[in-house]
Design brief:
The radius of gyration is 21 Å and the shape is globular. The protein has helices at residues 40-44, 49-53, 89-95, 114-127, 140-152, 166-174, 186-200, 213-217, 219-227, 244-259, 278-285, 312-320, 331-345, 351-365, 387-391, 404-411, and strands spanning 4-9, 15-16, 34-38, 85-87, 99-104, 133-136, 156-161, 178-182, 203-204, 235-239, 267-273, 325-329, 374-379. The protein has 16 helices and 13 strands. By secondary structure, the protein is α/β, with parallel strands linked by helices. Bound molecules: pyridoxal-5'-phosphate and zinc ion.
């Protein structure tokens, strides 16, 4: 990995060699999340916008020279990445905007944005010669890890809160992962996984502990920019729990600026559920990530429930350094967004994903987005992950006898 020059602590700035530390800055313990540093001159000698235009590999691995993996490392066979970016003129019209796109990551192999990070985790685990990989998760990261691990035959051990939606737990089990349901919160599962992985020597995929997950997630914004012919959008709405996705989007954009492939930094807008909004609070109060305290978090949007967001340093930097913001939306606003997005784009989102759109609605109302701005909304997970929540937003359909009369009666044309 000669294109990776080091791992830099997001708290103290000390930079380590890649083989010096496995996960975090030793001076800061488990909170010392590090950021992967690159030699952009070397990368630019290996990949360009022109070479990409000729590249027929429409997965995240088309950007392999920009990822922290050995050039010849094998990658899992499942097709991850190059998800659709749909123009959404009807959503735009509803909001009085001119240009809105949705990035649909519900179409990945395990139906969420987490496929991007878990694909990288599997490659890194195999590079490290690990025999078992583990993660804590609200559900999707584990589903992605279970699926990607199954694709290469790597055993996975999963720790999720027992309250995770059944569809997600079903994914873990069907992919053959060893599942332990934690009688506690995601934050509890996270702490437990740190201890267990150390005890048993397992490779740890935990978000914002493992420095490489950000790097997998950054591929989402490489795609957005490439799909927009390298004309970066003006602002991007990202649902935020731990803050790894928004941190990854920021990282990806910084990479593209360093390479000169885009010419401006979009505003990054982090959207949290009101019942799990410690980053909104820290943003408004001007706190640094390391000054934040855990809160008791709850929301219908289970994928973004995190009482102490693990990637808080990177998440706050993403909004602050780009002129963006953090926005809170209520559970009712999140639920309302599910059918609106589905009916105006054809994309069915789980609550956490729909939260990004609810955040855009709020941002428009508050004047944070101007009509001519080019806006991308990240739809990070499939609605099929949590049909119980989705069904709260639509009426029960009528049951009818199989006769024309019954239909006529219902349609009021008897
Ligand atoms: C994990 C997840 C998020 C939030 O990502 P973070 O990195 O935790 O901020 C948003 N949407 C979905 C569907 C997710 O699974
Ligand atoms: Zn440090």
């Amino acid at each position: 990995m000669e294109h990776v020059t080091g791992l830099k602590c997001t708290i103290c700035g000390k930079t380590y060699n890649v083989d010096e530390i496995a996960y975090v800055c030793p001076k800061h313990g488990d909170a010392g999340i590090v950021d992967v540093q690159y030699d952009y001159d070397l990368i630019a000698s290996r990949i360009s916008r022109e070479s990409l235009a000729q590249n027929g590999d429409y997965t995240i691995w088309r950007y392999k020279p920009l990822l922290p993996v050995e050039p010849d490392s094998p990658v899992p066979p499942l097709r991850v990445g190059w998800t659709p970016l749909y123009k959404a003129p009807r959503l735009a019209a509803k909001l009085g905007l001119q240009h809105v796109w949705v990035k649909d990551d519900s179409v990945g192999p395990t139906a969420s944005f987490k496929d991007r990070a878990s694909a990288l985790a599997v490659v890194k685990a195999q590079e490290a010669g690990a025999e078992i990989i583990t993660t804590a998760s609200t559900g999707n990261a584990a589903a992605a890890l279970a699926g990607l691990s199954a694709s290469v035959g790597l055993p996975a051990v999963i720790f999720v809160p027992k309250s995770a939606p059944p569809a997600k737990i079903t994914q873990h089990l069907i992919y053959g992962a060893r599942v332990m349901l934690v009688d506690g919160s995601y934050d509890d599962a996270f702490e437990l996984t740190l201890k267990v992985a150390k005890e048993y020597g397992w490779y740890n995929r935990n978000t914002a502990y493992n420095p490489y997950m950000t790097e997998g997630k950054k591929t989402g914004v490489y795609e957005i920019c490439e799909q927009l012919a390298w004309n970066a959008p003006d602002c991007i709405f990202v649902p935020v729990g731990d803050g790894c996705i928004i941190g990854g989007i920021h990282k990806g954009l910084k990479d593209l600026l360093a390479l000169g492939w885009i010419d401006r930094m979009p505003k990054l807008m982090g959207v949290q559920a009101a019942g799990s909004a410690p980053l909104v609070d820290a943003f408004e109060r001007g706190l640094q990530g390391w000054e934040m305290q855990p809160v008791a978090a709850h929301s219908v949007a289970d994928s973004i429930v995190a009482g102490l967001p693990r990637d808080r340093n990177k998440a706050l930097a993403a909004a602050r350094e780009t002129g963006g913001a953090f926005i809170a939306v209520t559970d009712q606003e999140i639920l309302n967004a599910i059918p609106v997005v589905a009916q105006n784009t054809g994309v069915f989102s789980e609550p956490a994903a729909a939260a990004a759109y609810a955040g855009l609605v709020k941002a428009v109302a508050e004047g944070l987005v101007a009509p001519e701005e080019r806006v991308v909304v990240m739809l990070t997970g499939s609605g099929l992950k949590d049909i119980a929540s989705a069904m709260k937003t639509v009426p029960e359909p009528p049951v009818i006898t199989p006769t024309l009369e019954a239909v006529r009666e219902l349609l009021g044309r008897a």
